[in-house]
Amino acid sequence: MSTTERPRILVVGGGYVGLYAARRILKKMRYGEATVTVVDPRSYMTYQPFLPEAAAGSISPRHVVVPLRRVLPKAEVLTGRVSTIDQDRRVATVAPLVGEPYELPFDYLVVALGAVSRTFPIPGLAENGIGMKGVEEAIGLRNHVLEQLDKADSTTDDEIRRRALTFVFVGGGFAGAETVGEIEDMARDAAKYYPNVRREAMRFVLVDVADKILPEVGPKLGEWGREHLQNRGVEVYLGTSMKSCTDGRVVLSNGFEADSNTIVWTAGVKPNPALAGFGLPLGPRGHVDTTAALQVKGTDYIWAAGDNAQIPDLAAGEGQWCPPNAQHALRQAKVLGDNVISALRGFPQSDYKHANKGAVAGLGLHKGVAMIVVGKMKIKVKGRLAWYMHRGYHGMAVPTWNRKIRVLADWTLGMFLKREVVSLGAMETPREEFHEAAAPVMAAAAAKQPERADRREDAAHAGKAGNGAKAKAG
């Protein structure tokens, strides 16, 4: 890590807002004007809208992430966590992946920690649930589902087969609906290669406590999405919550009970709890409270945006807040970056104002819904055309041309080649096979150690006895 007397702009978080804000600042900044430092536990940014397709094998997981050091070559990128912020001294405490925490001074601060999965104290959820916030979880879910098909195809036990082929998804927003649609599509394709597994034997369940799914695209398209999933054999339970899932036994509030090895949790997000150590003003749900210019209230050197911020939605009217989605995060990051540069040069701040342009969602290959806002009109599209719009929008929104081209290549190859149905579950425990091979050798060597010690001890006693006899003879 370099040190400099130039002002330091500290960006806490390397997600949507962190990456795009840092890029904007570096683009607008004069040479040597300031030092930009980005701190994040991961060395990459994850484009989350592509996680369902990565889980289904339509996109390579490597193409869903953007390496921070490659995209931000002129910035300091530190892999670690910011645990506390001392606003009086303008010092952040950084806990690196290894080694002792250290203090890092700053002049300007950008808070872009994002959100984490919102969970509840449901018995068994922590032990059995699978999230969908990171690329690691998407890869794990794909491997896990294919492994369940392997188990079901190889067993003669009906109870084991039913448990393996029951897949429960909790949460009917974008993440839940898109994930169940993509995974059902993948499992349907994969079943063709398993002689003892049929799609009719699989059970997909989607649960949401609300009375509709896909609320972002409106009630009519949400209803169409529900009917579409049900026509594909997905059981949809609305106005329903999960009471427990201890040992994989799923119990819903409507009386539904079933055993399942696969419980996917996508029931919303909440602001990163690390914000509690920053001493910032927080809203009722834990978001950083900001002005319309994205500045943290009561400060003139701290900004926040994205999922961890409570930002007035000027386009929606007084008392409204910007929803926590990628559409707003990407645009907020640009305004935030411009405002940091303005503060650095002593210019006034600009307010963030953006009218909703609509929403798109994919529900598997050639299936989707889209709601596009043109002026005061809302254009609603469903089916294959909506799926093309979904891919077109996110294909252009994913950062860097490198990733755009790689994702497009994945989609193009997918038109001509069948998707892979190989489970690489061993990736989650890559040392297990080596450990199994090495453990018996180590155990045998350990067993011989006492024998060798006994022999050395006997030899030592014999040597002492012999020396004593010689001494007497002398």
Concise structural overview:
Pfam families: Pyr_redox_2 (PF07992). The chain is built from twelve helices and 24 strands.
Topology:
Blueprint: E1 8-12, H1 16-28, E2 35-40, E3 44-46, H2 51-56, E4 65-67, H3 68-71, E5 76-86, E6 91-96, E7 102-105, E8 108-111, E9 115-117, H4 125-128, E10 129-130, H5 135-154, H6 158-164, E11 166-170, H7 174-190, E12 203-208, H8 219-231, E13 234-238, E14 242-244, E15 249-252, E16 257-259, E17 262-265, E18 269-271, E19 288-289, E20 302-304, E21 309-310, H9 326-345, E22 358-362, E23 368-374, E24 377-382, H10 384-397, H11 401-416, H12 432-473
Parallel strand pairs: 1-2, 1-8, 2-5, 8-20, 10-17, 11-12, 11-17, 12-13, 19-21
Antiparallel strand pairs: 3-4, 5-6, 6-7, 9-18, 14-15, 15-16, 22-23, 23-24
Helix pairs in contact: 1-9, 5-6
